[in-house]
Amino acid sequence: MESIAKTNFHWSCKNTWKKSAKNTGWCLLGCAIGDLGTILFFQLSKIPFPILGIMILAIINGLITSIILETIILMRQNFVFFTAFKTAIGMSFISMISMEAAMNLTDYYLTGGAILTWWVVPIMLLAGFITPWPYNYWRLKKFNISCH
């Protein structure tokens, strides 16, 4: 039975790409709120803190806000809190980590790290979206597992 599932998998399903794009977009929104908010806080407050420290805090806050947003979305779909929270962590944590890494590496490469400018944010968001999207497609297509 497992070999049947492997042979039926393909990367050409438009509906799965659309649904996985929607799921990835929600994840990106959650990650971006915490990540960009943290970087912006340090940028505006001018609190002296190492760039690596800011970026680590940004990643942690991005993960936290993404989990919170996804938990709320699942609760609105009639999940009880604990199940929604567990689902939000379990189904998309790999996606969130890859998204956060892509966003922060892009920021670091383009600006030296922990600097938001009008032109870097869209590039960070694009990198954060594209990186986990194939993984989200694969999970959805192979296992019919998604967060939303």
DSSP helix fraction: over 70%
User: Major sheet, described briefly?
Assistant: none
By DSSP, the count of extended strands is 0
Sum up the overall morphology in one term. Answer: globular
Strand content: under 5%
- Rounded to the nearest angstrom, the radius of gyration is 17 Å
Q: What is the ordering of alpha helices and beta strands?
A: HHHHHH
SS class: mainly alpha
**Mean pLDDT reading:** 91
Distance between the termini: 27 Å
Question: How many DSSP helices?
Answer: 6
Show unreliable segments.
none
Count structural domains.
1
In short:
With 148 residues, the chain is mostly helical. It has helices at residues 2-8, 14-45, 51-76, 81-111, 120-130, 133-143.
Question: How does this model look, in words?
Answer:
The protein has 148 residues and is mainly α. It has one domain (16-143). It has 6 helices and no strands. Helix 2 packs antiparallel against helix 6 (133-143). The chain starts with a helix and ends in a 5-residue tail after the last helix. The mean pLDDT is 91.
